[in-house]
Amino acid sequence: MASAVRSLAEFLGAEKAVVRVELSRVRGSSPRGEGTEMFVAAAALWGTIGGGQLEYRAIETAREMLRDGDLSQSLDLPLGPEIGQCCGGRVEMTLTRMRGSDMRAAIRRDSEATETRPHVYVLGAGHVGRALADQLQHLPVHCVVIDTRPEEIALCSADVDTRVRAIPEIDIMTAPAGSAFIVLTHDHALDFLLASSALERGDAAYVGMIGSATKRVKFKNWMRRNCESGDIDKLICPIGASGSRDKRPSLIAAFVVAEVMAELTSEPAAAGPRETGPTPRSGHHHDQRGMWA
After folding, report:
1. Residues 167-183: pLDDT tens digits?
2. Are β-strands 235-236 and 206-209 bridged in parallel, bridged antiparallel, or unpaired?
3. Span of the secretion signal (predicted)?
């Protein structure tokens, strides 16, 4: 499915004149960090530096530059009552009218960032799997949806990588280090096989399996009998712990996406998968027929 969101290359290719806004220095609390970029054209934007009055001032200044022909400016703004914000920090911005070489460099940086996005493997393209894909397609991850059933993959309309696999373990084995694996197939035995394969890697940022506390105990016993390695304590099951009794797939997916992104963007994720204890949680599970998978 083609994405409706323009890439940076498409944006820059469509606009005649663009100002690049960069947060060149950040002190204290700020909505975005140093190096964050936003691109401003006369009637369009690409990216964000955090919204609010900070972004409004940047856009206003950038468009004044486009009208007046200025090549560069800088802004130094306190994020306090002076501009109607309460972050408490201070931000310095550099605004530069882009030349062809600047545009090529920006596209290259964006491409490199896209290539290094963490991979999220959704193992199961049922109702929840497709709902996960619908939400993950908008986030800075490379989402891969895998199922043994081509008819389920055909129902996935999100702009993600979809794969029909007779043996999904191969994709787990070849996944990049630091990937996230969400296991929610139509079959408990297959869930066990895929979850154990992900745990045996030892370098996953997140391994989650849909199910109940009972399913977790059964999986733990199964893994002890059948696997030589893999830390069961790193398995998240149930997934998407929220305390919510609403089991609609889109809501389950929202809780799971929040859980996965918290792991992928945490500081420990840069060094390796974070330890998670085996304590059962009130997350989401499907019934024995797999109706939510």
Report:
1. 999 999 999 999 999 99
2. parallel
3. none
Rounded Cα gap, residues 231 and 234, in angstroms: 6
Domain boundaries, position 175? 118-271
Same structural domain for residues 109 and 126?
no
Which of the pair, 142 or 90, is modelled with greater confidence?
Answer: 142
Q: What are phi and psi of 25, to 5 degrees?
A: -155, 135
Q: Are residues 108 and 147 in the same domain?
A: no
* Calpha distance 8→108 (Å, rounded): 10
Identity (one letter) of the amino acid at 231?
D
Residues 158 and 37 grouped into a single domain: no
* Residue 177 sits in the same domain as residue 76: no
Percent share of the chain, pLDDT over 90 = 71
2 assigned to some structural domain: no
Residue 280 falls inside a structural domain: no
Residue type for position 102:
D
Give the pLDDT band of residue 6 (cuts 50, 70, 90).
confident
- Is there a single domain that holds both residue 180 and residue 76? no
CA 258 to chain centre: 9
For residues 236-261, one letter each, b for 16 or more C-beta atoms within 10 angstroms of the residue's C-beta and e for the rest, the string is bbbbbbbeeeeeebebbbbbbbebbb
The total number of structural domains in the chain stands at 2
Helix (H, G, I), strand (E, B) or coil at 188: helix
Digit-coded pLDDT (tens) for 186-244: 999 999 999 999 999 999 999 999 999 899 999 999 988 988 777 888 999 999 976 77
Q: Name residue, tokens 């999986």.
A: 219
**Tokens 């993600």 sit at which residue?**
160
